[in-house]
Write a sequence for this structure.
């Protein structure tokens, strides 16, 4: 029901003159979009995944709209604008992807090339190497899928999943014995809940094809919950490995769990600057006027598979500023 009202509101807001007014207001401001997953076929029905996925056909339609109504830009354009050597075009839009999922390469890449859209892929190096994993998502997915235990609703299933995660404490290893035992108890096959990530060769190929590669830490911790030294290792370790793998300098960074309360930004931003990063992005919605004080605090808005094309257009026109 909530999604229905969002889509109706977007139709009213973004049709005719209303859409043009919104776009005119933000014409010189950077809008940044972030994606996680692009699904070749309609993705899993698990409610926990709804905001992680966009179906491939919808992604194609979204990119067609971006090219038609806005001007896609890449890191070189943003860095040139920051340096004062070349201003951004009118209605600039930066397309980005977080974590390094395999479907970014398989499903998103051909569409980006089709429309000649530059994009940045923010890589969590531990996910690529298999030394850590998003087990919290996998546990929730397992409870949503299981038929071995009965629950009244999806909300109840997710509530139990969160109780399990809270009791476990620190997570990370993809071969965590607790996770393997849980899958056995729930009678869920690992392949049905685990994600597949890109290889380093695929990431290097993205770079060779003109896309940008950014850092998204080593193990994807919430910065607000770790020490400054741990933060430094996450920042520098990820940057160093990506640079060695792709043979190019990494200039951009995506805060893991990028909402204000989770970024630990007051501590992280100086570390990023010391490490040579020029750009850093959050997951707070909004637009930005690029300058030296905003370069390490660039807002981005997320996209859900439930977003209609009119609502997507509304998000791009406004920068999704309500996603705080």
């Amino acid at each position: 029901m909530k999604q229905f009202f969002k889509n109706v509101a977007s139709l009213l807001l973004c049709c005719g003159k209303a859409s043009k007014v919104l776009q005119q207001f933000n014409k010189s401001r950077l809008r940044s979009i972030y994606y996680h997953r692009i699904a070749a076929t309609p993705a899993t029905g698990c409610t926990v995944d709804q905001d992680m996925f966009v179906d491939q056909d919808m992604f194609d339609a979204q990119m067609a709209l971006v090219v038609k109504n806005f001007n896609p830009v890449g890191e070189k354009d943003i860095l040139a604008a920051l340096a004062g050597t070349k201003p951004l075009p009118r209605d600039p839009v930066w397309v980005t992807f977080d974590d390094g999922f395999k479907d970014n390469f398989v499903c998103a890449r051909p569409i980006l090339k089709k429309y000649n859209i530059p994009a940045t892929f923010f890589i969590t190096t531990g996910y690529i190497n298999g030394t850590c994993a998003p087990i919290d998502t996998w546990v929730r997915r397992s409870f949503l899928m299981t038929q071995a235990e009965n629950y009244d609703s999806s909300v109840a299933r997710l509530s139990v999943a969160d109780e399990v995660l809270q009791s476990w404490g620190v997570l990370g290893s993809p071969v965590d014995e607790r996770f393997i035992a849980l899958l056995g108890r729930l009678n869920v096959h690992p392949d049905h809940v685990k994600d597949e990530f890109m290889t380093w060769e695929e990431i290097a190929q993205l770079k060779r094809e003109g896309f940008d590669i950014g850092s998204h830490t080593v193990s994807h911790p919430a910065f607000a919950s770790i020490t400054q030294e741990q933060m430094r290792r996450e920042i520098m370790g990820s940057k160093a490995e990506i640079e060695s793998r792709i043979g190019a300098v990494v200039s951009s960074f995506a805060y893991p769990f990028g909402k204000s309360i989770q970024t630990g930004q007051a501590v992280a931003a100086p570390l990023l600057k010391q490490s040579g990063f020029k750009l850093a992005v959050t997951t707070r919605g909004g637009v930005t006027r690029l300058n030296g004080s905003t370069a390490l605090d660039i807002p981005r808005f997320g996209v859900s598979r439930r977003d209609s094309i009119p609502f997507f257009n509304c998000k791009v026109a406004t920068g999704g500023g309500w996603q705080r």
Notes: The longest strand covers residues 92-99. Residues 163 and 197 are 27 Å apart (CA to CA).
